[in-house]
Amino acid sequence: MEKMFKRSIVATAVTAAALASSVAFAKPATETVDLYGQVAVSVWQYGEDAIGGNDQPLKFENESRFGLRGSAELERAPKFIWQMEGGNVGDDGGNSGLGVRDTFAGFEFDDGGKVRVGRMLTPLYQMIDWPYSGQRAGAIFDWGGDVLGGARYDRQSNMIRYDSAKMGGLNFSVAAGRGSESDNDSNFYGLSASYNVGVVTFHAGYESGSDRSVSALDSFYNTYLKQQPGFDTDIKKVKSIAGSTKSDTDAALLGFEAYFDNGFGVYAAYKMESADYDDATATITPESGAEEKIDLVGASIEQDSVSVGVVYGGVENWQFKANYAVNFEADVENAGSSFTATGTEDSIASLQALYFVDPSAVVYVRPYVISKDDSDNEFGYGIGFDYYF
Questions:
Q1: For residue range 294-343, what is the model confidence (pLDDT) as tens digits?
Q2: How many CB atoms within 10 Å of residue 71?
Q3: DSSP assignment, residue 208?
Q4: I need a surface site. Which of 28, 207, 224, 382 has the fewest CB within 10 A?
Q5: Distance of alpha carbon 56 from alpha carbon 379, whole angstroms
Q6: What are phi and psi of 21, to 5 degrees?
Q7: Left (φ > 0), alpha (ψ -120 to 50) or beta: where does 204 sit?
Q8: Model-level pTM?
Q9: Burial class for 14, CB neighbours closer than 10 Å (0-12, 13-18, 19+)
Q10: Sorting pLDDT into bands at 50, 70 and 90, what band is 388?
């Protein structure tokens, strides 16, 4: 649930404290600062008999977090906007510090959109995330793919992003920033657009990345290259595979949402992700101890995905959702050979029953069935409570 419920707090004391430690060269701001966030706790059974044969215990999730955001009307500049957002509390608060989530500064222009720099969602990922990855669909459609090293980013620092104002039914976003944070040559560029016509909103997005650092080539060889004709090594007898490379990536999404007066809604999206890898060599250490070198030459992986969902909110204070997402089998190339990596098709079917105990609080149950790598189906569920402020 994306809608945030805000509560304003007067920022005079905050401003005064900041000025006390610096030279007061400008008059104090009199704007207000919004404190917003959520208290969200849930319990999950991620497969009592998990894929892979491991029994999974019940797990408590604490996604509680808060943020601060504000704006100031500057005398000789556009409106200044800013935000500092903390991460989820989790088990011990280790990732909850301010700046873990969207944290930026920028300017907003009258009828001209806004420009921001800092840490934000990329335009493409903002569409992937919602609504297409909701209700556990993200376990497949978001982070469950098989492109080694990933093919796009989600929330990135070192980014500049422009979001247009709405022009009729159209609005768009463009962004550019660092990819691998420590690599000067690794960058990404992305854009997205939405167009609303009546009850339907269409979405499209694209992202391109260069020189993305990729390690753990064992994943690549274990899953894909063992299926290449002429690849004789018995993977089950290999102790370790080491190596690293870089990739150039592309990802795109086409989707839509439609919500009707009778309480029904539907959404669907198609996503493509691909990566081209620099030539590299992997060192394989079999159980015999004799090392073997295998070349990664002209290699690439491409995988397509689909997410579809149905929503019904026609019962007072209730909302029901059903979602299905699938990653299709990945296509692989290496050393001039092309093949489909069998066993890489994954899917998830999930349901949600959500009840509004208050306009700012909900309780829900989310059962799901997931299948990965042609394994047996795994059943799981979550029960939670969210309060938004």
A1: 778 888 999 999 999 999 999 999 999 999 999 999 998 888 888 888 77
A2: 18
A3: E
A4: 28
A5: 11
A6: -100, 10
A7: beta
A8: 0.86
A9: middle
A10: very high
